[in-house]
Specification:
Number of strands: 14
Catalytic activity: adenosine + ATP = AMP + ADP + H(+)
Enzyme class: transferase
Radius of gyration: 19 Å
Structural class: alpha/beta
Number of helices: 12
Low-confidence stretches: none
Strand order of the largest sheet: 6-5-1-9-10-11-12-13-14
Main location: nucleus
Order of helices and strands: EEHEHEHEHEEEHHEHEHHEHEEEHH
Mean pLDDT: 92
Function: Catalyzes the phosphorylation of the purine nucleoside adenosine at the 5' position in an ATP-dependent manner. Serves as a potential regulator of concentrations of extracellular adenosine and intracellular adenine nucleotides.
Distance between the termini: 14 Å
Strand content: 15-25%
Shape: globular
GO cellular component, one term: cytosol
């Protein structure tokens, strides 16, 4: 088995402090939220953050999609520590300190760009039953600066150390030029670059930066809610094949497309075919919070990918990690995995 080295996995994204609370339908209606969605906060949502903190029993967890995934990958790998590197922007405030502490506890090598103009970003996870509606107030996360952080030699050297790269599509709204620089580096050096379509609004409103980076993407992750430019079919297997066949620069690696569908089978392209992979059974009563399921799947997948395991093993690890995370509140996990 290949031993995995420190900083072999690189992630970059929006570090957010998750504020999770159980709410009711009236709360969702008041702020115009769908029960199961992911959106960026607008002016009308500003009061939501105060209300959720003051009204409900809340839990705080280190979050942000990419940060969750690399944290779970590190948890799955266990040793050595700091296999996973993470870049993102935080504020010089209490929430920022919490994120730094949580990253250290998870043994992730986090290098945050810290600035004082904006506070650390937050994400309200509004939970109703086994649905969750996420409202992200990016704040500091939106201030990531390529020139002042990614381009700095000591930081770029960490990018160069990595073999596998993963960025959630959410970061396309923040620094597409940073994503492109990392993606091109991976492509030119025949390393693996993964991107997540993340949420419907990414392919709807950020098509241009998405399609600019697409030729460099080796693995595309998505779920049953994502759609993509110019693909009008509802058939998820057909969508996967069409995404796979989009133009690609590095011809040495055929693009892999992996779509999760909640409790339904995961769909993935294997060579020129599409295969389905059943998820692990779970009693509905054991589901506590589906909030981190997608991020956890990717984290499990990356933990095996960085160890050069085959696709089937990566998906099996993804299913395992998601199955663990949905039994708990937030994207949290027990001390050690028991993935065999």
């Amino acid at each position: 088995m290949p031993t995995v080295s420190q900083n072999a996995l690189f992630g970059m994204g929006n570090p957010l402090l998750d504020i999770s609370a159980v709410v009711d339908k009236d709360f969702l209606d008041k702020y115009g939220l769908k029960p199961n969605d992911q959106i960026l906060a607008e002016e009308k949502h500003k009061a939501l953050f105060d209300e959720i903190v003051n009204k409900s029993k809340v839990e705080y967890h280190a979050g942000g999609s990419t940060q969750n995934s690399v944290k779970i990958a590190q948890w799955m790998i266990q040793e050595p520590h700091k296999v996973a590197t993470f870049f993102g922007c935080i504020g010089t405030d209490h929430f920022g300190e919490i994120l730094k502490q949580k990253a250290a506890e998870a043994h992730v090598d986090a290098h945050y760009y810290e600035q004082s103009q904006e506070p650390t970003g937050t994400c309200a996870a509004c939970i109703t039953g086994d649905n969750r509606s996420l409202v992200a107030n990016l704040a500091a996360a939106n201030c990531y600066n390529k020139e002042k952080h990614l381009d700095v030699d000591s930081n770029w050297s960490l990018v160069e150390k990595a073999q596998v790269y993963y960025i959630a599509g959410f970061f396309l709204t923040v620094s597409p030029e940073s994503i492109l620089k990392v993606a091109k580096h991976a492509s030119v050096n025949n390393k693996i670059f993964g991107l997540n379509l993340s949420a419907p609004f990414i392919s709807q409103f950020f098509k241009e930066p998405l399609m600019k980076v697409m030729p460099y993407v080796d693995i595309i992750f998505g779920n049953e809610t994502v759609s993509i430019k110019n693909i009008s079919t509802e058939d998820i297997a057909e969508i996967a094949q069409r995404v796979q066949s989009l133009p690609k620069f590095n011809k040495n690696r055929q693009r892999i497309v992996v779509f999760t569908q909640g409790r339904e089978d995961t769909v993935a392209t294997v060579g020129d075919r599409v295969k389905v992979f059943p998820v692990l059974d779970i009693d509905q009563n054991d589901i506590v919070d589906t909030n981190g399921a997608g991020d956890a799947f990717v984290g499990g997948f990356l933990s095996e990918l960085v160890q050069e395991k085959p696709l089937e093993e990566c998906i099996r690890a993804g299913h395992y990690a998601a199955n663990v995370i949905i039994r708990r509140v937030g994207c949290t996990f027990p001390e050690k995995p028991d993935f065999q």
